[in-house]
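User: Thanks for the earlier help. One more: Diaminopimelate decarboxylase. Can you show the sequence and predicted structure together?

Assistant: Of course, both are below.
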Amino acid sequence: MELVRKALAQGLFRDQDTAVILYDLDRLAANFAALAAAFPSRTRHAFAVKACPLPPILQLLAGLGAGAEAASLPEIHLALAAGFDPSRIVFDSPAKTGEELRLALKLGLFINADNLDELARIDALATGLGVVPRVGLRINPQAGLGRIKATSVAGRYSKFGVPMSARDDIRDAFARYPWLGGLHVHVGSQGCPLELLVAGAGTVFDLAREIEQEQGPDRLAVFDLGGGLPAAYRDGDTPPTPADYATALAVRCPGLLDGPLALVTEFGRMLAAPCAVAASRVEYVKRQPGHRTAVVHLGADLFVRECYNPKAWPHRTRLLDSGGQAKQGRPGLWHLAGPLCFSGDFPVRQARLPAIAPGDIVVIEDVGAYTLSMWSRYNSRQMPRVLGFGQGRFSVLREREEPQDVVRFWLGSGGAV
């Protein structure tokens, strides 16, 4: 909350700003340092661009030595523009086009193929380009689902990867394509306990051992662990740390952390989510029998998952007065209603907060990942100003959109009214 107060005092949370998002850049750097310390130095920690595609955030992580995990053609370009060396970019997508694969091969990105047909496509493209591809194969370990089904990808069926039940086809692919040198596993994001993450990695590591026994000890070069470590969204949440994960992996997968395979991780949420808050001015307060509602300027535009699935995606809230001081008083239950024109637009229901008045500032915590990157254009609301605070000073990471910016978005490139 101190960052909100400082931003107000320095005139960075301006009168025209109905809302702002504030990133603690020092905390982000500390989170990355903790991740790097937990794994061997040969590990490439590829930040999931989808979690937070803000170029200054990506630039900061590139400067810290991170890699980037891109899941689309624009995410590749975002990573390149942020300064990531192509050799440190991992390209994941279940729907890679020939154009996208051709670019990835020319640049020398590491490609995680999602299916066996994609391997055949890569082989033909690489032959035509005269390059040796750097490729891993995504495996669905079929280890089970986490608490949130929509973000769990390791059930008996998944849209992602080659199922472990096709083990013979997987081994045949490694025999057919000598350039295929890696395995990739990911079981889900948020709601997946440590035991499930380790079980998924362990199943695919066992497969790696089988391939090496069958085709030679040097057959594999890369093991991509994916992401999945959760963030704490409730006061009582105690998510496992990167060190906890590494310790559990060492027990389940002896030889993985201290062996010759190059390791890759693809974390996003655990790195960035705790590093930002969203602060919105309260525009109106409504009282009806049994309900108290504060109308704020951020709703399902920023909090898409939270509004459509509030039980799975809670957020802690705080209340400040217009000057940025914490409001005191006996807490009551308040609905925080967003500005969009549909009845489910409540980023938080039944928040326990002191009495709210127009002009107060509601602060919603842990919004650093999978919020702004999922911004909805419904009602054509303006994206808020995004601020960063690091090494003792503020910077503007992204300026607040003006109405003409939204008009240009809908016109598209080359459009005119």
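User: Great, one quick takeaway?

Assistant: The longest strand covers residues 134-140.
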